[in-house]
Amino acid sequence: MEFRTLLALSGAVTMLAACSSADEPAAEEAAATPTPQLTSTPTPVVADDGSPLTPGAWSINESASGASARFGLPGENAQVVITCNRADSTMAMVVAGSGEGMQSYILEAGGTAARLDMMPDGDLDLPSMSAEIARDAPVFGGFVMPGGVIEITSPRGAVLRLPGSSGIRRVFEACA
C-alpha cells in the first residue's frame, strides 16, 4: 500500500510542476516587451486657453560667462533670445526682425505688460532688434511660469506668442 501511495504522490507532484511552469512567461515573450524610452517634454503648440502658440521651443544654455534662453525651431535662427553677461551683470533681449531707429515693443506675460524700446542690432545677415532689460521688471516674472503665455508685439502689430518656461529663471538667476 505504501508503494501505491508513493506512486500516486509522485504523479501528483509531476502534474503540479508542469502546471506551475506554464504560468511563467517564455523567454521569447519577455524579449518582445519594449524597453521604456525617455522622451523630452512635448513642445506646446497651443496655450492653456486653446489659442495657438508660435512654433518652437526654449533652449537654455549656461557657461562661465553667462546664460541664455533661445526660442525657435531646432536648426533655425532663434526668434527670441534672452541673455545674461555675468562679467557686468547685464541682461539683454533680442527679437528677430528689423526696423529703423528705436522701436517700441509690448511685452505681456503673467498678467503684466511693459513697453520695451529696442534698437536694430546692426547685423545685416540676420536683422534683429535688441535692448537691455532689467531682470527685476515684473513682466519677466510671467516668462518663467510653465503653462503661461508670453506675448511680444512688434510696432507693426505682429505678435509672437511663446510658452512660458521655468528654465528661463536660470538666465535671470545667472545675473543675480
Structure description:
This protein has two domains: 2-32; 57-174, Sandwich (Immunoglobulin-like), CATH 2.60.40. It has helices spanning 2-22, 27-32, 168-174, and strands spanning 57-63, 66-72, 80-85, 90-96, 103-109, 112-120, 128-133, 149-153, 159-163. The longest helix has 21 residues, at 2-22. The protein has a nine-stranded antiparallel sheet, with helices on one face. The termini are far apart. The protein contains three helices and nine strands. By secondary structure, the chain is α+β, with helices and mostly antiparallel strands. The model is unreliable at 5-9 (pLDDT under 50).
Overview features:
single chain, 176 residues, alpha+beta, Immunoglobulin-like, 2 domains, 3 helices, 9 strands, globular
Produce the secondary structure layout.
Blueprint lengths: L1 H21 L4 H6 L24 E7 L2 E7 L7 E6 L4 E7 L6 E7 L2 E9 L7 E6 L15 E5 L5 E5 L4 H7 L2
Antiparallel strand pairs: 1-2, 2-3, 3-4, 4-7, 5-6, 5-8, 6-7, 8-9
